[in-house]
Amino acid sequence: MKIKLATVVSAVVAVLATGCSSPSAETKSAANAKAPLKVLMIGNSFSSSVLHTTPKMAEACGLEIDFVNCNIGGCTLKGHWENVEKSSDPEYRPYLAVFGTPDSATAKAVRAVCVDGKTNIPQMLGAVKWDVVTIQQGSVASPFAEMYQPYADNLIATIRKHAPQAEILIQETWAYLPYHAKLAEWNMTQREMYERLHENYGALAKKTGFRVIPTGTAVERYRSKLPPFRKLTQAEWNAIKEPNLPDICGDPCGVPKWRRPYKWETGFDPDKVQLMIDSTHLNHEGDYLQACVWLSVLCGIDARTISYVPDGVPADRAAMMRECAYETVNGAQKRAVSNHRN
Question: What DSSP character marks residue 342?
């Protein structure tokens, strides 16, 4: 049985049915189909994070979805297209295949085209009959319109050639934590990064007619409900002592941690630790928000009805994120997301 995806209503809005607690007939059909929904993500670490929470949430919702990430960390649309151009050599395998359901038939079929877990885009596209293929821009290129074309069009043509049956979806990525050095380099606030990437993804969706998985907008909407973000001064930063961590005001992006300094020549220094923040990637709570958005778009889930909450995500924040996912995907809240955190 072929699984029917949600009807297109706009580039950024999915038609929502009932949620996990009471699946619709269509959702039940998807969950009970002999072949699970097969989703290939042509991406980078911003699609890798989909695998952290989404497969478990889908299982809790009674949905069968096989997620596979065709991954190169930081890869842009330009990088993906350049890799496609080199893939006429079947031995050119720059991508690592990463599985949300490692024991599935989909994973087995993908492994069959891999060598030491590595593959290329045409090989991945031809490995199974994908229901959905997602694309996204590399985050470092996401605010810059000139970095999208002609690479997106060329990549889309490749997908249509090798997987004509698949629906192509666009994941909108998100803006960095204000600590990220690139924001200072670009003379750009977090909010400005979001506005630019949101405009660029919207233009791509309008041109192609593809639906958007609006993760970045959901992140920004959630931020609008949090306390204002205040970046610490250098003196305040230096005053933090292990094991204390800086306050990131509940942001779903950013992972502060203590680590030992590393040098290629000597390895990790056993006598020192330093405070650092991964200000690019989603944290555990952000993974949850991303999962709510993805299942809302893929399966028509009403995110407000999702009962699954992993360990480490406070119940009140999980409820707020489910509401943000619903508002973002459903378009229930039309007003612009507040920019009070910048």
Answer: -
Residue 320 near residue 222, CB atoms below 8 Å: yes
Arithmetic mean of pLDDT over the chain: 88
* Residue whose structure tokens are 């151009």: 85
Helix (H, G, I), strand (E, B) or coil at 141: helix
In which element (H, E) is residue 316 found?
Answer: helix 315-330
CA atoms of 58 and 31, how far apart (whole Å): 9
Indicate the burial class of 277 (C-beta count within 10 angstroms; 0-12, 13-18, 19 or more).
Answer: middle
Q: Judge whether residue 32 has pLDDT over 60.
A: no
Task: For tokens 């060598």, name the residue.
Answer: 115
Place 20 in a pLDDT band, splitting at 50, 70 and 90.
Answer: low
The total of other beta-carbon atoms located within 10 Å of residue 254's CB is 23
189 φ, ψ to 5°? Answer: -85, 170
Percentage of residues in the chain with pLDDT exceeding 70?
87
Any idea how long the chain is? 342
How is 270-313 classified by DSSP, letter by letter? Answer: TT--EEEEEEEEE-HHHHHHHHHHHHHHHH---GGG-----TTS
pTM of the model: 0.88
291 vs 282: CA distance, rounded Å: 11
* Element spanning 222, H or E: helix 215-224
Q: How far apart are CA 279 and CA 254, in angstroms?
A: 4
Band (pLDDT 50/70/90 cuts) for residue 269 is confident
CA angle 194, 238, 312 (to 5 degrees): 55
**Domain 25-226+282-330 belongs to what topology?**
Rossmann fold (3.40.50)
DSSP lists the bridge partners of residue 258 as 275
Q: Inform me whether the pLDDT recorded for 159 exceeds 80.
A: yes
Give the tens place of pLDDT for each residue, 318-328.
999 999 999 99
**pLDDT score recorded for residue 263:** 72
Structure tokens at 205: 């969706």
Specify the amino acid at residue 222.
Answer: Y
